[in-house]
Amino acid sequence: MKFITNIKSPSQLQNLSDELKKVGVSSFRIDFGVSHVLTINHDSIGENEVECAVRKAGFKCVCF
Predict the structure, then answer these.
(1) Whose CB has fewer CB within 10 Å in the chain, the N or C terminal residue?
(2) What is the largest CA-CA distance in the chain?
(3) pTM as predicted
(4) Looking at residue 62, what is its pLDDT?
(5) Residue 56 and residue 63: Cα distance in Å, rounded?
(6) Of 45, 63, 64, 62, which Cα lies nearest the Cα of 20?
(7) E strand or H helix at 43, and its extent?
(8) d(Cα 22, Cα 54) in Å, to the nearest integer?
């Protein structure tokens, strides 16, 4: 799953990482140039769960 976010500080990155881990996403990639985050997860993790985790971390989720 790929989504757009605007991470501005290390604490925001840590919050995002912590929330994604809670739903089972153990790794993700960030392209800071275009503000994309690509989650690397199993099919068993639903898109809604990832979106909820992103919102809990304090980001708006523009998923595509």
Answers:
(1) C
(2) 30
(3) 0.80
(4) 64
(5) 15
(6) 45
(7) none
(8) 11
C-alpha torsion angle, residues 19, 25, 28, 32 (rounded to 10): -30
**What is the spatial distance between Cα 4 and Cα 37, in angstroms, rounded to a whole number?**
6
Structure tokens at 25: 């996403």
Report how far residue 11's alpha carbon sits from residue 48's, in angstroms, rounded to the nearest whole number.
24
3-class SS of residue 6:
coil
Cα separation of 29 and 38, whole Å?
5
Kindly state the helix (H) or strand (E) to which residue 17 belongs, with its residue range.
Answer: helix 10-22
Count CA atoms closer than 13 A to 51's CA, side-chain side: 7
How far apart are alpha carbons 22 and 36 in whole angstroms?
20
**Structure tokens given for 57:** 């971390």
pLDDT at residue 41, rounded to an integer: 67
